[in-house]
Design a protein that fits this description.
The complex is a heterodimer. By secondary structure, chain A is α/β, with parallel strands linked by helices. In chain A, 64% of the residues lie in helices and 8% in strands. Chain A is built from 31 helices and ten strands. In chain A, the strands form two sheets. A seven-stranded mixed β-sheet of chain A has the order 2-3-4-1-5-6-8, sandwiched between helices. In chain A, strands 7-9 form a two-stranded antiparallel ribbon. In chain A, helix 14 packs antiparallel against helix 16. By secondary structure, chain B is an alpha+beta fold. Chain B contains five helices and three strands, in the order H-E-H-H-E-H-H-E. Chain B has a two-stranded antiparallel ribbon with strand order 2-3. In chain B, helix 2 packs across helix 3. Classes of the chains: A alpha/beta, B alpha+beta. The interface between A and B is large, with 56 and 53 residues.
Chain lengths: 683, 77
């Protein structure tokens, strides 16, 4: 490391320039680089206390200048603002490039971050075109090594056409060599750098532009660089040129620039090709164990065929686990806790009026109480989903589902909201805000309620074991698959008829797989479970009480109650679906909240919260075919009131909201009738 | 490379950074840079950003963060 001791006092930029002009043993070096690459660390090491911090003229951006003594050579060092490129995108970029173009330092030292070379080298790709001596300081090599990146500086130098010096500025390693190289370069003719090469057709256009603007540029501006910037659409260079050009000349230039308005992509492409070539030749990456595992697993989990198989297996496993472990606990809770609670209520309310006993035992305990017995099932289901999210699998599942949906003609941006629909349809509808175009957004809103939300899955989780025994996981899986198929078909038809719209590509950065964190999974499970319990204690409880009241009054008989009258009115369509009036009422009640249908079955079948009793009653009252029909319709039925309200809010249209509700009602009844009638023939 | 990436994206197929890197014979880090360039030029849009800025008060943002899906982009409509 060179001696950093000072021979001059703190000075201003103007003084530095003045001294540089009058002293041949004085050098002027500019430090360039992107933000956070360690440029200021190098500057501080070089200048120590001999630096001045002010503002760039007319700006509030820090201007740092200082002096470094290198033997008998005094070096004025200017720390340019951190910039990603030399395009006029920000005040920092304008200052940096204006300084380099007008002050023409003897050497530019570009500090790059070795751990993110792909990003850092973009500025270098622009600096090499300024025609100034350039050195690259390859900083943060220690960080790069820690992440398995090794860089051959000599190879990189040959590829870039400029000297490359290894640096770990934070430990003051390589800074002396860097400044030595800069001094040597300043006293020798610079080797012409191998800059990015444009495509031949664009090269010809560039020559045309150069001819037109040659006399209109400031003397210090490199012609080729300025011409390229004009083709990139740089407004500042265009303004300078227009001011200096005759109107005819500007018109000709403007016509060329307009005809090549996409040239910025080709120019940037050439820079990235140049960077990629350099990286390919000089950078070696040792994949970490987790990356290797992620890559291996992704070969399977994101494969269009095997990936879907893995997804199906995981979902089937999750359902299987939920039923195997959750259902017995739920049965125990129903028989002992909720059953015990209803027995206790019976004792306490022994002398109470009949309607009050019915309201508490059949309405509150039989309805909301039954729903609360789902908690063990939900705990397992939520934990399973949270585990899949936490290890990074759900991103793969979403990617796979997007591929499937896209093949059906659905909009790529639909994936995120639809994915959220597995939790709840309300955020799914709200999530369509990420889609700017009206038609694709409306389409996504239309199909979002077809994603089987947790509440619908809860109904499935409760009813399938009652009617299908050991085949319950298979039936549940088939119901979810049916929903997704209907979603895809409805979406594809609507996309090709009502909402003809363009597609868009979808790019996803998949996270690495990692071991699950118990704490984060526990938090997700806790939040979702508490949310469910609150829901059962409010909306579902109120609805259970209302339904009980409607089923009791005016004469205390369910068959002749107001609800019974309404149910019998629905019998024509219920007959086609194989559903008796109680099931139709349970279906309608699911409009308030999907779990409500179980609570209402509890009320109407007078289970008094006893799961075993309710399950037994249901199993003897309803045929498996009718149950299947009920489950199919429940899964596809109009969304809950909250979702409908959200659809109205998001679309700001009652017409559209009613269309969505009507379409989903039609689809659910249509598919339900088809399933029931086909099942009757087959069984 | 950037032009080839745009051509691939114009096929309107979903892709991961790794897949694009494999197809363009480069690193996922380089693809991320190319995507960021396209984003600066309004040719692609990052989904998470949109959600964070436009859905204030919506609990979607919380659910979004649980996706653990890394960054997501779509080509501009």
């Amino acid at each position: 490391m060179s001696d950093c001791c000072d021979t001059s006092a703190t000075t201003t930029l103007a003084e530095v320039r003045s001294l540089a002009a009058s002293n041949t043993a004085r050098l002027h070096i500019a430090l360039a680089g992107q933000p956070n690459v360690g440029k200021s660390t190098v500057f501080n090491l070089l200048t120590g206390l001999n630096q001045h911090v002010g503002n760039w003229p007319g700006k509030t951006i820090d201007q740092k200048i200082g002096v470094h003594q290198h033997g008998d050579v005094t070096i004025d060092v200017v720390d340019l603002p951190g910039t990603y490129s030399l395009t006029a995108n920000s005040p920092e970029e304008l200052i940096a490039r204006e300084y380099l173009l007008t002050q023409r330092p003897e050497v530019i030292i570009a500090i790059v971050d070795a751990s993110i070379l792909e990003r850092s080298l973009y500025l270098v790709a622009e600096l090499v075109q300024l025609g100034l001596p350039l050195i690259v300081g390859l900083n943060m090599l220690d960080v790069a090594r820690q992440t398995g990146i090794s860089i051959n500086a000599e190879t990189l130098a040959r590829s870039l056409g400029v000297p490359v010096i290894d640096l770990v500025a934070a430990k003051n390693i390589g800074v002396a060599e860097l400044i030595d190289a800069a001094v040597v370069m300043a006293h020798h003719a610079a080797v012409p750098p191998h800059g990015p090469k444009l495509k031949p057709d664009l090269d010809a256009v560039l020559s045309e532009v150069e001819t037109l603007v040659a006399s209109a540029l400031p003397e210090t501006y490199p012609l080729a660089w300025a011409a390229e910037k004009l083709l990139e659409g740089d407004p500042v260079i265009a303004q300078i040129v227009r001011r200096e050009m005759m109107p005819d000349g500007w018109s000709s230039l403007d016509a060329i620039l307009r005809a090549h308005s996409a040239a910025n992509i080709s120019i940037a492409s050439a820079r990235y090709d140049w960077i990629a070539h350099a990286i390919r030749s000089a950078v070696m990456r040792r994949p970490s164990t987790s990356i290797t595992w992620t890559a291996r697993l992704d070969h399977i989990t994101t494969h269009p065929v095997w990936g879907l198989g893995v997804l199906a297996t995981i979902l089937a496993g999750l359902f299987g686990l939920t039923y195997t472990v959750g259902s017995p606990i739920q049965a125990w809770l129903g028989a002992n806790v909720i059953g015990g609670l209803s027995n206790l209520a019976n004792l306490i309310l022994a002398t109470a009026p009949t309607w009050l006993r019915g309201l508490i035992i059949d309405g509150a305990i039989g309805g909301a109480g039954t729903v609360l017995t789902f908690v063990p099932i939900l705990l397992i289901f939520f934990a399973g989903m949270a585990l899949l999210e936490d290890v990074g699998y759900m991103a793969r599942a979403a990617y796979l589902m997007d591929s499937v949906m896209r093949r059906m003609g659905l909009h790529g941006k639909s994936f995120l909201p639809l994915f959220l629909g597995f939790g709840c349809n309300v955020p799914a509808v709200m999530g369509t805000r990420v889609i700017e175009s009206e038609k694709p957004r409306l389409l996504s809103i239309l199909i979002a309620p077809l994603v089987p939300c947790t509440a619908r899955l809860t109904v499935v989780a409760f009813l399938t074991p009652v009617f299908f025994g050991a085949s319950a996981p298979l039936v549940a899986f088939a119901l979810v698959a049916l929903n997704l198929i209907v979603l895809a078909v409805v979406g594809a038809i609507a996309n090709r008829t009502i909402f003809k719209s363009g597609q868009s590509a979808f790019i996803m950065e998949l996270p690495q797989y990692h071991w699950p964190k118990v704490r984060s999974i526990a938090l997700i499970v806790w939040r979702r479970t508490i949310g469910f319990i609150k829901h059962a204690g409010t909306a579902i409880l109120i609805m259970s009480l209302i339904i009980w009241a409607l089923s009791y009054f005016p004469n205390g008989q369910v068959e002749t109650s107001w609800l019974g009258s309404l149910g019998r009115g629905l019998s024509p369509i219920g007959g086609l679906l194989g559903l008796n009036w109680k099931l139709m009422i349970a279906l309608l009640a699911s409009f308030v909240a999907k779990e409500n249908s179980i609570a209402i079955l509890g009320v109407l079948f007078s289970a008094a919260g006893n799961h075993t009793q309710l399950a037994a009653t249901l199993a003897t009252s309803i045929t498996p075919i009718a149950a299947l029909s009920f489950l199919v319709v429940s899964m596809l039925f109009i969304p809950c009131a909250s979702t409908v309200a959200t659809i109205r809010h998001e679309t700001r249209s009652w017409k559209w909201t009613l269309f969505t509700v009507g379409l989903l009602a039609g689809v659910s009844f249509g598919v339900g009738i088809a399933v029931y009638q086909i099942a009757r023939i087959l069984v | 490379m950037l032009e080839r990436l745009i051509a691939i994206l114009n096929r309107n197929s979903p892709a991961t950074l790794d897949q694009l890197a494999c197809e363009l014979d480069t690193t996922p880090e380089m693809i991320a840079q190319l995507i960021e360039y396209l984003e600066r030029n309004d040719l692609v849009k990052q989904l998470g950003d949109n959600c964070n800025t436009q859905c204030t008060g919506c609990y979607l943002a919380q659910e979004c963060s649980q996706l653990k899906a890394g960054r997501l982009w779509v080509t501009a409509a």
